[in-house]
Amino acid sequence: MNVNGLTIDAARAAIAERKTTAAALVEAHYACIASVDDASDPAKIGAYLVLSKERASAKAAQIDAMAAKGDTLPPLAGVPVGIKDVMCTRGVRTTAGSKILGNYIPPYDCTAVARMEAAGAVVLGKLNCDEFAMGSSNENSAWRPVRNPRDLSRVPGGSSGGSAAAVAADLAVATLGSDTGGSIRQPASFCGVVGLMPTYGRVSRYGLIAFASSLDHIGPFTKTVKDAATVLKVIAGRDPMDATSAETPVPDYVADLNKGVRGLRIGVPKEYFGEGLDGEVRAAVEAAIQKLASLGCEIKPISLPHTKYAIPVYYIIATAEASSNLARFDGVRYGYRAKDAKNLSQMYRRTRDCGFGAEVKRRIMLGTYALSAGYYDAYYLKAQKVRTLLTRDFEEAFKDVDAIVTPTSPTAAFKIGEKSDDPLAMYLADIYTVTADLAGVCGVSIPCGETKDKLPIGMQILGKHFDESTILRVGHAYEQAA
Amino acid sequence: MKVTEKDVAYVADLANLELSDDERARMLRDLNSILGHIDNLNELDTANVPPMAQVSELYGVDKTKAGSERFIYAAREDVIEGLRKSLPHDEALANAPSTDGTYFKVPKVIER
Fold this sequence. Notes:
Chain A is of the alpha/beta class. Chain A has helices at 8-16, 22-37, 53-69, 111-118, 161-168, 185-191, 225-235, 253-256, 279-294, 310-325, 344-355, 358-371, 376-397, 423-427, 434-439, 468-481; strands at 48-51, 80-84, 122-127, 174-179, 194-197, 217-222, 265-269, 298-302, 403-407, 442-450, 456-463.
């Protein structure tokens, strides 16, 4: 079966109607992976780090047995999926893109992964990412950079670069990624796929290797907005294993897509269309906004006045939380341990020195500095206060609008190596995405055109807390009309 | 320069990192560049703004309560087995670099 452009609905229907089997879909995807992705060949995409072939064939056989009996198939029956390597998978190596976890075999499954499989999804393997999800280009993977399927000389974005590239290159029907400062939406934009960051607390973080616990979100990459709605319905909802997962009821996101967008109020924040925005990206997003107007949305200019402070706030809070979360990597209970240390203290230091890459060490240092005696008030407390102001910006804006539309990233995908030597320039690539993580609102990036070099451009749609239905509706209406 | 070489050494020590001479020089440059940008926050008067630690403060909580009582919905009974059984001993040790089969092993803590 041809897997190009294959969606969840089409895959599930083909299996239910016995036109193909889950096993055949798995084979077809592994064939594509072998031909264009092979991580051992640096010229290829390199999205998958590990293939979980036994697990995939067992799950596919289970789905095929159900289909053969004529059972009602679950919502993701036989759908081949990939999982970002920051989510634990029982018995399948999980490295978080880091040498320090190079040989880690988790003894349990991440809740989101378990829910995907319980809904019938077939896990093909683990997807490359920036080390501990720290990066905007995937160049911080300890294993190898991922290449953008649309132009192999360019980055796929980050940190969930493998998750975005796999969907873009038809190496999975859907994937899971994580977003702490834009790590789902920005790579979705760079690779020309749909990437959804749900509201903080909407999806359990249990089994997600923690980067910044007040900012980490799990969400799907898909080929269509409808598929994103389908996956979200499966993974959303309260999980007793994550105390921050919300009890808020999970609506039927797929049914809600058809409510239409006539009369919806769409805010366009002027701060997201200023200096630094590439002309082609601006033109494509403005054209998309015009399209939404033609579908009956009311377009309203708005202001999110503290936007320019989002990057500094983010790089204090995220690094402070990371410095604490990454303290657990000490070479004792799991992961890499440096050899020949004379005593415990030296073992910790050498393990962390050799096990962590440059960007991870940079963030641990920045976060530790911001939390250290004498600097806590000036940096960490100050950042927490400005986080309140950023959140209030959204509260004010959402009094007048139902959703907010912006570019996802100021530029299309940049060249591999272009920003890798300048951390501040790399951080500024997240300028339109970090604010939503800090405020905990939901956001989705959907493709809205291409540059003249055929690079994808993404439009970001932001919504109120727990109002994924509205942003998915807007995205779906645009996608159908475009 | 806000951050000095001495600061880098002190913070590396706090973070249990050794860092080579090259890494320390690079860290000095990068931290100063990033903190220079972060100093833009000082343009804002936040004297009367409360700090925000997490998004879940905004929903799902009983706002009539104070402190941890607000998150009471997330509480569970304090029972020995909790939500899941503990890992079997061998599985809990399986990823460790060094064990004696019962305990994690580490290098000497105290020199004699």
